[in-house]
Specification:
The protein has 381 residues and is α/β, with parallel strands linked by helices. The protein has 11 helices and 18 strands. The chain has 2 domains: 235 residues, FAD/NAD(P)-binding domain, CATH 3.50.50.60; 122 residues, D-Amino Acid Oxidase, Chain A, domain 2 (2-Layer Sandwich), CATH 3.30.9.10. It binds flavin-adenine dinucleotide. InterPro entries: FAD-bd (IPR002938), FAD/NAD-bd_sf (IPR036188), Geranylgeranyl_Rdtase_fam (IPR011777), Geranylgeranyl_reductase (IPR050407).
Length: 381
């Protein structure tokens, strides 16, 4: 295979599929490649945050309704934050949100792309090489194929090949979280339609969670700042099991529970950095652009929002026939305006609160106040 496209999107997660959907009707020849064959699992908490659904609704009511029609999901409009001193604060999210295992949600997104666009979807195609020439990029895949595209959109997640090949990278543990999760059934005494987030005094900055995903299943996980996990030499899989089996605030719910999946782990590149997310002939979106929200660790919304902003930039580039690094600055500014400032503020808030369990408890107690609660709901999305 050697094929020429206008646009190659690498990665068919929320960022890549949102970008593909936003390019619907553009008349461009678009290819969407993923290393996996869908349905594929993705280690995640499985909360689909309201800004993700809002972005879809803004793009197209038809596509929004189609995503909402996904049957394998759980409604959880309320989050219960349990403070280090055991106090509970309930939040009712303003916008539409639901939980769905990424196995189903991401497949549904990709099926929507297949149904509603002319995008050429290639699954089981790991991209291993990205080389930029003066007026096109050459992508090589693990099976030895190659294809060319005028523009490359790197939506290939936290370990993005595109970001590694085309931008300077250094790993900063203070800008990165690590998290693990497993699915359980038989968790008891869970409040209805509620996600539980436990901020445990022993494990800050970070939290343990129990999120319903439907059909009696719960996504149970634990994540924390990578720098703290490394400094304390924590094995997060062991920590997760220890919390479930022994923690006085949690273990009671798990007495009759069954672990129904292996524990999976993954990294979360936190937003709020100034690292390059675009250059001549390429753009990065989602985790590849380090856009995870630092306080609660959600990134499906920022992935979809940035994927759609990338699509806008693609259209701009083709309209002006300008694919230069200078032209891409528009995208960098758009992402910074829409997401970057808020992510940077939340990053510093997270660092300020880290290792201050009393302050975390006091802040959440204050958040019981309805005005502050409104602010917090807006702050984390
Ligand atoms: C434990 C955990 C819990 C989380 N919980 C939540 C949550 O509840 N809600 C939330 O909003 N966010 C959550 N996040 C963050 C969220 O998972 C990510 O921010 C989101 O998946 C980013 O979407 P993306 O499209 O950028 O990347 P991804 O979803 O990672 O998709 C990237 C795609 O690229 C493909 N790919 C990778 N490399 C290549 C390659 N070389 N060639 C071709 N294809 C490739 C992958 O197969 C994948 O399909 C969590 C993350 C973790 C780790």
């Amino acid at each position: 295979m050697s094929t020429a496209y206008d646009v190659a999107i690498i990665g068919a997660g929320p960022a890549g599929t949102a970008c593909a959907l936003a390019l619907r009707g553009s008349g461009l020849r678009v290819v969407l490649l993923d290393r996996a064959k869908f349905p594929r699992d993705k280690v995640c908490g499985d909360i689909i945050p309201s800004p993700a659904l809002k972005a879809l609704r803004t793009l197209s009511m038809e596509l929004y309704e189609e995503i909402l029609a996904l049957t394998r999901k759980a409604e959880a409009p309320t989050s219960c934050l349990i403070t280090p001193d055991g106090h509970q604060v309930r939040f009712h999210w303003k916008g539409r949100t639901f939980n769905s295992a990424r196995l189903h949600f991401d497949e549904h997104l990709l099926n929507t792309v297949k149904k509603h666009t002319d995008v050429h979807v290639l699954e089981s195609k790991p991209v291993v090489g990205v080389a930029l020439a003066s007026d096109h990029a050459v992508l090589t895949t693990a099976d030895g194929d190659s294809l060319t595209a005028r523009l490359v959109i790197g939506c290939d997640g936290a370990n993005s090949v595109v970001a590694r090949k085309l931008t300077p990278r250094s790993f900063d543990r203070t800008r990165h979280c690590v998290a693990v999760r497993a699915y359980f059934s038989g968790v008891t005494n869970m409040p209805e339609r509620t996600n539980e987030l436990y901020f445990l005094r022993e494990y800050l900055p970070g939290y343990f969670w129990v999120f319903p995903v439907g059909e009696g299943m719960y996504n149970v996980g634990f994540g924390m700042l990578s720098a703290t996990a490394a400094a304390q030499k924590l094995d997060l899989k062991k920590v997760l099991l220890a919390i479930v089996q022994e923690h006085p605030q949690v273990a009671g719910r798990f007495v009759d529970a069954t672990q129904i999946s292996a524990i999976g782990g993954a990294g979360l590149p936190l937003g709020g950095t100034q690292r390059p997310i675009a250059g001549a002939g390429f753009l990065l979106a989602g985790d590849a652009a380090s856009l995870v929200e630092p306080l609660l660790g959600h990134g499906i919304d920022t992935a979809m929002q940035s994927g759609m902003l990338a699509a806008e930039q693609v259209k701009r580039c083709f309209a002006s026939q300008d694919f230069s690094a200078a032209a891409m600055q528009y995208y960098t500014h758009a992402v910074q305006e829409k997401l970057g400032r808020k992510l940077a503020r939340n990053y510093w808030l997270m660092r300020f609160l880290s290792n201050k369990p009393r302050l975390v408890s006091a802040s959440f107690r204050l958040a019981s106040n309805s005005l502050l609660q409104k602010w917090l709901v807006r702050a984390v999305g």
